[in-house]
């Protein structure tokens, strides 16, 4: 699952450069993933390529777009427009996903309310329950301090959010119908230091 977005990005770049087909070795060299792993990954989804021919770029790009992103557009809100939230708002998400729109941000800082960051308006957190249904938002990126994370997750669930990308260092307690993906930067850094030391 973690490799699928890498494959999608690779095929997207290949299409931009006008490439019609690629081999598993070319993909391997570009992504530093073993060719056998690539063939095994692709075979999991059926016959995506032909021996001696390789993989058709447009076909694979369409395939991965459907399997990673689905056919519907996702409206996303960033909860917490501080340093990390603002950085994410300034990030070009279209490089990752053509079907993802960051349509709103929420914060309590009075000085930010009503402003726009990279064309996305910042609303007051008190208006969250009103704005989320109005904008058809079903995904939230949570960039709040740890102590505010759980209460906000409960509010997001009640407002209709179906998926949360959680940058807070706590594990959120939500219903089974809500998918939470946790990104703890301190844990990721510790893992990096461990690999640097031991491999």
What does this structure look like?
With 199 residues, the protein is of the alpha/beta class. The protein has two domains: 4-67, Winged helix-like DNA-binding domain superfamily/Winged helix DNA-binding domain (Arc Repressor Mutant, subunit A, Orthogonal Bundle), CATH 1.10.10.10; 74-187, Rossmann fold (3-Layer(aba) Sandwich). 43% of the residues lie in helices and 20% in strands. This is Redox-sensing transcriptional repressor Rex.
Give a brief description.
Pfam families: CoA_binding (PF02629), Put_DNA-bind_N (PF06971). The chain is of the alpha/beta class and about 200 residues long.
The Cα radius of gyration reads 20 Å
Count of all domains = 2
Largest sheet: 7 strands, mixed
Gap from first CA to last CA: 24 Å
Based on Cα principal axes, name the global outline: globular
Which spans have pLDDT < 50 for at least 5 consecutive residues?
none
Q: Helix share of residues?
A: 40-55%
What oligomeric state is this?
single chain
Order of the strands making up the biggest sheet: 5-6-4-3-7-8-9
